Amino acid sequence: MPTVAELLEQGIRRLHTAGSETPRLDAEVLLAHILGIDRTGILAHPEAPVGDGLAAQYVKALDRRETGEPVAYVRGVKEFHSLAFATDARALIPRPETELLVDLAVAEVARRLLAAPRPIGIAPLRIVDVGTGGGAVIVTLAVLLDRLGMLGEVDLMATDADAAALDLARENAVGHGMGDRIRFELADLLPGELPGRWDLILANLPYVRTDAIAGLPPAAAFEPRQALDGGSDGLVTIGRLLDLLPDSLDREGIALIEIGADQADAMDVAVADRLRGWSCAIEPDLAGLPRVARVMPP
Ligand code: GLN
User: Fold this and answer.
1) How far from 74 is each of 172, 182, 205, CA to CA, in Å?
2) Which residues have CB under 6 Å of ligand 1?
3) Ligand 1 atom closest to 205 (CA)
């Protein structure tokens, strides 16, 4: 029987040759996943023997990773905001920088709910996540609001134009006990029938310039192109959303829209051009890069 150390060595060698930028990390994560333990367990017990069946599964995982397929798809899971999300080729893999979008949403909900005593029977805050993909943003928001005791005060909805992505989002909602707390609707951007106006619109839409797609890391080639490709300037889909805001956002509402690190100025211009008198403030992510635009009516 091979040992953990031998399998790791084999994996690192194969993935290095295949061009992975992180061969050791990939091999550790894949082996730990297959053994059902965390990475520290792998590092603590290099001499442990691994049964032939598990070793064979590991080799299969390496075969997939060698083709460039992202580790998150091979494992079928990705951590986001310390929660585990099912991931596969139906949707974009959740990115750590998108955690900021959720944090800003939680802060906004808390600000609204704590600002003034809310009379009994007042309508819940209406929140929609546009282009939810695998659902990481809306499901994480639901889990965090639940922990704060605020889930009863919000009405959560998520849309996507892709039915397969929505299925994954529903699976993730169910996986986190939120299957009956979030409504999912197949729609291009906002849902057809508006339940009044939205208090909070969240969006991590495709924003990569078409000509920059080829320069993304190889793993991105396995992700749905429509989840990344934001058209010639990267802001085509976001621009379509901006055009819908005057009719769909409450007068006191806010749209939080994730953008690329180099799109702060272009986003300011897009808002100024399309939404006379509206404001656009850009929030930086943990790396200090522009990441989320906060768009508000006059
Ligand atoms: N941040 C992602 C990337 O560059 C893009 C995600 C998106 O287009 N919404 O890979």
Assistant:
1) 17, 28, 24
2) 95, 204, 206-208, 216, 220, 228
3) 9
Ligand 1 centre to CA of 123 (Å) is 34
**Ligand 1 closest atom vs CA 98:** 1
Query: 60-76: string of b/e by CB count within 10 Å (b at 16+)?
Result: ebbebbbeebbbbbbbe
* Mean pLDDT (the chain, rounded): 95
Q: What's the CA-to-centroid distance between 2 and ligand 1, angstroms?
A: 39
State in Å: Cα 41 to ligand 1 middle.
Answer: 32
Q: How far is the CA of 221 from the centre of ligand 1 (A)?
A: 12
The three-state secondary structure class of 290 is strand
Contact between 151 and 125 (Cβ < 8 Å): no
**Whose structure tokens read 């990939």?**
26
Sign of CA dihedral 108, 109, 115, 121: positive
pTM of the model: 0.94
Q: How far is ligand 1, taken at its centre, from the CA of residue 231, in Å?
A: 13
Question: 85 pairs with which residues across the strands?
Answer: 78
Provide, rounded to the nearest whole percent, the portion of the chain with pLDDT above 70: 98
pLDDT digits (tens, 9 = 90+) for 155-169: 999 999 999 999 999
Q: What are phi and psi of 91, to 5 degrees?
A: -150, 165
Segment 91-125, tens digit of pLDDT: 999 999 999 999 999 999 999 988 877 777 788 99
Instruction: Examine the pLDDT at 196 and tell me if it is beyond 70.
Output: no
Residue 116's pLDDT is what? 72
DSSP 120: T
Pairing of strands 290-296, 249-258: antiparallel
Strand 83-86 and strand 77-80: the pairing is antiparallel
Atom of ligand 1 nearest to the CA of 92: 6
What is the predicted pLDDT for the residue at 120? 73
